[in-house]
Amino acid sequence: MLSLTIDGKKVEAEAGWTLLDTARQYGIEIPTLCYHEAVEPFGACRLCVVELRQGNASRLVASCVYPAEEGLEVHTASEKVNNVRRWILEMLMSECPASQEIKEMAAQYGVETTRFEINDPEQECILCGLCVRACAQVVGANAISTVGRGAQKEIGSPYLVPGDACVACGTCVTVCPTGAMRARFERVRGVPSVVMARSVK
Amino acid sequence: MQATAKDTTELRLGSLEELEKLRGELRAAEDPDQTRIIVCHGTGCVANGSPGVTQALKDALAAAGEQVEVMPGIKTTGCHGFCSRGPLVIIKPKNIFYQQVKPADAEEIVQQTIVKGETVERLLYKLPQSGEAVETTEDIPFYAGQERVVLKNIGQIDPTKIDDAIRAGAYAGAAKALTTMEPQQVIDEVIKSGLRGRGGAGFPTGVKWNLAAKHQGGQKYVLCNADEGDPGAFMDRSVMEGDPHAVVEGMIIGGYAIGADTGYVYVRAEYPLAIKHLEKALADARALGLLGENILGSGFNFDIRINRGAGAFVCGEETALMRSVEGKVGEPVPRPPYPSDKGLFGKPSVLNNVETWANVSRILDRGADWFASLGTEKSKGTKVFALVGKVNNVGLVEVPMGIKLKDIVMTIGGGVPGSDRFKAVQTGGPSGGCLPWEDAELPVDFDSLIAAGSMMGSGGMIVMDDRDCMVDVAKYFLGFLEEESCGKCFPCRLGVPRLRETLNRFSKGEGTIEDIDDLYSMAEAIKAGSLCALGGTAPNAVLSTLRYFRDEYEAHILEHRCPAGVCKDLITYSIDPEACTGCHACFRACPQNAVSGEKKKPHTIDESLCIRCGMCLESCKFGAVQVQ
Ligand SMILES: Cc1cc2nc3c(=O)[nH]c(=O)nc-3n(C[C@H](O)[C@H](O)[C@H](O)COP(=O)(O)O)c2cc1C
Ligand code: SF4
Ligand code: SF4
Ligand code: SF4
Ligand code: FES
Ligand code: FES
């Protein structure tokens, strides 16, 4: 067993647990968007960041991928942590304005509006990649993937070539933290072929 | 007679002694006082026509025939660093330096210099201030201020000939390490030298090796990062093109030190000459028994493969690079696990930069104490910089760590055209920051640069003058990073474009002073929250310009004015009636027909038609066009 502190509270973790696993074991809330028990953690959304302090040094790590280590001093809701969450959520509000889930989460952090330009008012997908990982790791179908890089990134069939690997199992819909996959799935249900879920165009 | 490649084709070196014997023979076969002609065949000079110069020199020598007592050899080498003056021809042993040589100059060089021993005045380099011509490489401030450790052979040896490299000392360090030292002794030597990684972060190289070496036995890898994605940077390319054996040798030493039998060089596919020279170096080293099984009879087996990168900037990040070598998508993954524990193919791995590996060869050859005598207390050795922008001597320079910023830009670089100071120097590539003239005395080393809000990065150095707008510069680097972000993690994918959006508003004269405070907070979130160092350093462009050029930001926001005259929405062009001669040049240059006026009478610009392209400004020979 490893001993560490989370928000001042002494906790114990088994080797191999992440900081998120450990916090959840003790009922300490850490928000997540790209994490799901069913698939490998990805460390992408960074909403789950926590602050590690050691003397005067401090840094943020993603709790869903960072392993529990002996003696760590973890803070899950410090000002530094909340600053990251607030900015990510405000930027998501302009990136994915159609997502009710994001709006609700943002409101919890006091973010009610966004100062940034809205590119696509219909957009819901936050590009957390959960659907892709679930389809690959749980279903084994590999019917969808992320395509492209950076701000041009999309979710679609591999290489954006329509494929027939989708078995219409709906797993992607279940793991999707926003309504994005649901909306798309309505369109393709019964037609097991995957086109685009999120397009920047 | 010179020993030629033919002499060594059959040879396989089985021990340190055999290598040293070969080196001795090669050195004895070359008379150091003999006249030799060196022609730069680096990428820059080749682009400027140096192969034609080489051919013309050969023809001229043949034509001179009997007139030449001892036929000088012509050697083609890698980049001498002074590409802006290329094609370069250097006559040994006096090091007579001819610049901007054309094929038509060949005959004169042969007749004057080779036959009569006189210099061709008009081909010499002229000091920019006094106009005085100087004769030799050593007299040129661009070279005189340098300290060449990594680049010592470049421009001296033919990079496609292993004989030439061995004559210059190649593989002495590797031979010493493999045959006379234990792996741990090699690591300790590198730690003692104080060498820190030249690829960006400046992590102590030997310490990194120790982390991988502590895993006993099993498959391990060493890798060379030759992705060199920074815009304008070409240090690593020049090393691979000009002295590929230095990299190969360093990797052999690293492989031995950590217990790896395989190395990978990850080089961008846009570097065909570097790849060609590396491939040749690997083949020649293999043939001589310097790579492969039982190197120099030491019992150590090691070989190197080349991996061509697709050219994405993020693939230079270590975890992304390893995924890319594995054939996966080149996206960073969270650490831990660290590459020293689980790197390439899940095995303990060490990744170092091209320049780092070249330094390793030098350290093992000349010793840690010698290396540690160069540089500052915490930054040992030298650093190669690609000096570009508003500076007289554009090129590649190697300087001791701790040299003053001013000495690089104003002395070696020859200063800023039309000004006695620079406005800013951008260091560290897209991850770095801009330093102002107030930092001219700053010692250039890892820690001073970080403290000043920039970083060493891999060695880009862009000089800027009063016509560069700092808001615009920050926007440029953010734009680059936005394009190159892999898009995996949210702070970087979302944050970099939104930083740019905010700066865009500033350059339109929109925005409030409160926006600056928000920028700081947002930058902090992106730095602290991003998965890899691309996002983690992306806000530096904004933060460093805000730190030193806040007035310029405020001028945009509060006064709707761009002091450098760059941001189109904030400037107007006008013509000074006193200075205007009515020459009509701007009238013809303007694509919008916004200029009107009769010949020989002062012209005017119609602001409503002007698109602020600046063509009139460029065209006016009388300085009458003004930007406000
Ligand atoms: C986005 C990004 C791009 C990078 N590009 C390069 C590169 O082109 N060349 C390089 O040597 N290091 C690059 N690095 C640094 C490497 O990740 C790594 O730190 C370095 O290669 C280690 O070698 P060193 O210790 O010898 O410096 C990059 C890092 C990041 C985050
Ligand atoms: S519905 Fe199709 S795309 Fe979604 S998880 Fe199942 S197979 Fe994959
Ligand atoms: S569709 Fe849903 S699960 Fe898939 S990336 Fe978008 S938000 Fe995530
Ligand atoms: S910081 Fe940028 S480049 Fe790095 S993982 Fe995140 S999105 Fe990709
Ligand atoms: S939940 Fe940890 S990074 Fe997304
Ligand atoms: S290529 Fe000749 S000096 Fe650089």
TrEMBL record, chain A:
**All copies of domain 4Fe-4S ferredoxin-type, residue ranges:** 125-180
> Keywords of this protein's UniProt record, alphabetized?
4Fe-4S, Iron, Iron-sulfur, Metal-binding, Repeat
The record's listing under PROSITE patterns reads: 4FE4S_FER_1, COMPLEX1_75K_1
User: Which one Pfam family would you cite for this protein?
Assistant: Fer2_4
Q: Which GO terms describe its cellular component?
A: membrane
Keyword Ribonucleoprotein in annotation: no
| Any one GO MF annotation of this record | metal ion binding
Which Gene3D superfamilies does the record match to this protein? 3.10.20.740, 3.30.70.20, 3.40.50.1780
One GO biological process term is: ATP synthesis coupled electron transport
> What's the protein here called?
4Fe-4S ferredoxin-type domain-containing protein
Q: What is the lineage of its organism?
A: Bacteria, Pseudomonadati, Thermodesulfobacteriota, Desulfarculia, Desulfarculales
UniProtKB/TrEMBL annotation, chain B:
PROSITE patterns with a match to the protein in the record: 4FE4S_FER_1, 4FE4S_FER_2, COMPLEX1_51K_2
UniProt GO molecular function? 4 iron, 4 sulfur cluster binding; FMN binding; metal ion binding; NADH dehydrogenase (ubiquinone) activity
| Lineage top rank: taxon | Bacteria
Where in the numbering of this chain does the 4Fe-4S ferredoxin-type domain appear?
571-600, 601-628
**UniProt KW keywords:** 4Fe-4S, Iron, Iron-sulfur, Metal-binding
State the family named in the UniProt similarity comment for this chain. Belongs to the complex I 51 kDa subunit family.
Q: Which PANTHER family match?
A: NADH-QUINONE OXIDOREDUCTASE SUBUNIT F (PTHR43578:SF3)
Protein known as: NADH dehydrogenase
